[in-house]
Amino acid sequence: MTTTYNSIKSLREALKPLRADKKIALVPTMGNLHQGHISLVKLAKQHADIVVVSIFVNPTQFGVGEDLDSYPRTLEADTEKLIEVEADYIFAPTVDEMYPIMPPPTQVLAGSISQMLCGKSRPTHFDGVGIVVTKLFNIVQPDVAIFGKKDYQQLAIIKQLVRDLSFDIQLIGGPIVRAEDGLALSSRNQYLTETERAAAPELHKAVQDLAVKLQSGRATSETALQSLIEESITAINAKGFKVDYLEVRNQDLTPITEFAGKQSWVIAVAAWLGKARLLDNQEVDI
Ligand SMILES: Nc1ncnc2c1ncn2[C@@H]1O[C@H](COP(=O)(O)OP(=O)(O)OP(=O)(O)O)[C@@H](O)[C@H]1O
Ligand SMILES: CC(C)(CO)[C@@H](O)C(=O)[O-]
Ligand code: BAL
């Protein structure tokens, strides 16, 4: 059975008797669920006895002028999908329940990792993610928490949060779920027009092309890497996107300083296509 709670107190009461002998997993979401989210719930079920899915469009992670008001809110359809996949609890609080004072005076800042990549164009975004995820961890006290690798930087920031605030939580990153044509599933894909949707998989293709070049050993120096990156940005922009950033980093998101020998890198990209800012990434082991 899938039960929905809107209050922190009632969810805590429901979970309390289960803690003694059940493993609890948390899957945090902003709702408008698609197969990417459902894959995380299925992964959660493999690692825990009880799965809690939070659905909360978190205002503190939206910047001024972003899509907080228009972000799709589809709780009824989401609930049906979660019943079908047999999630145990849905936590769907109101903004007042989560933030008695708005904006909350307490902050959870992630430092330099939150100012790079997506943080350059969304400078307060990860501070909002930091506080809401900290609250969700404190409310649910899960044994396991599942996040998607589509939001690669977010997962890296949450790894740092778990380490620095000593949360006793096992973090698991779920693989990116894609449409058949390669586009990473995302709630914001619905902002695309039909023509833009047809062009959208080009982003993934460009990332794959760059991955092939990296794997063939062409990034022998900082300069060589930079020129491959610039080639990719030009190719993506030529398809009608406006690249926000495309960077190659070590998989912990530190800058690359070693070019010889075995390397574990990640290509991370964000690009605007019409009203949608699309994210993608690919890990590359060289
Ligand atoms: N295609 C996907 N594959 C795997 N995980 C995903 C995918 N899309 C989203 N997730 C994960 O689901 C969780 C909730 O994400 P969220 O509700 O913001 O969905 P979203 O589709 O990414 O929305 P948005 O378009 O706002 O970025 C996050 O951990 C996110 O990384
Ligand atoms: C982790 C999260 C649920 C926090 O609001 C959100 O950033 C998301 O959906 O990725
Ligand atoms: N999945 C990322 C949530 C956001 O862009 O706010």
Automatic annotation (TrEMBL):
The main enzyme category here is ligase
UniProt binding sites for beta-alanine = 61
Q: Which reaction does it catalyse?
A: (R)-pantoate + beta-alanine + ATP = (R)-pantothenate + AMP + diphosphate + H(+)
Q: Where in the cell is it found?
A: Cytoplasm
Report residues binding ATP. Answer: 30-37, 148-151, 177, 185-188
The UniProt entry, under SUPFAM superfamilies, shows: Nucleotidylyl transferase
A biological process from GO: pantothenate biosynthetic process
Its pathway? Cofactor biosynthesis; (R)-pantothenate biosynthesis; (R)-pantothenate from (R)-pantoate and beta-alanine: step 1/1
Q: What is its EC number?
A: 6.3.2.1
Q: Which GO terms describe its molecular function?
A: ATP binding; pantoate-beta-alanine ligase activity
- Its main subcellular localisation, reduced to a broad class, is cytoplasm
Give the Pfam families listed for this entry: Pantoate_ligase
* Keywords for the protein's UniProt record, in alphabetical order: ATP-binding, Cytoplasm, Ligase, Nucleotide-binding, Pantothenate biosynthesis
**Which residues does the annotation say bind (R)-pantoate?**
61, 154
Q: Which GO terms describe its cellular component?
A: cytosol
Q: Which family does it belong to?
A: Belongs to the pantothenate synthetase family.
**Quaternary data:** Homodimer.
What does this protein's UniProt record list under function? Catalyzes the condensation of pantoate with beta-alanine in an ATP-dependent reaction via a pantoyl-adenylate intermediate.
Q: NCBIfam families given for it?
A: cyt_tran_rel, panC
Mention any additional remark. The reaction proceeds by a bi uni uni bi ping pong mechanism.
Query: What is this protein's name?
Result: Pantothenate synthetase
Recorded source organism is Psychrobacter pasteurii
Which lineage do the record's taxonomy fields give for this organism? Answer: Bacteria, Pseudomonadati, Pseudomonadota, Gammaproteobacteria, Moraxellales
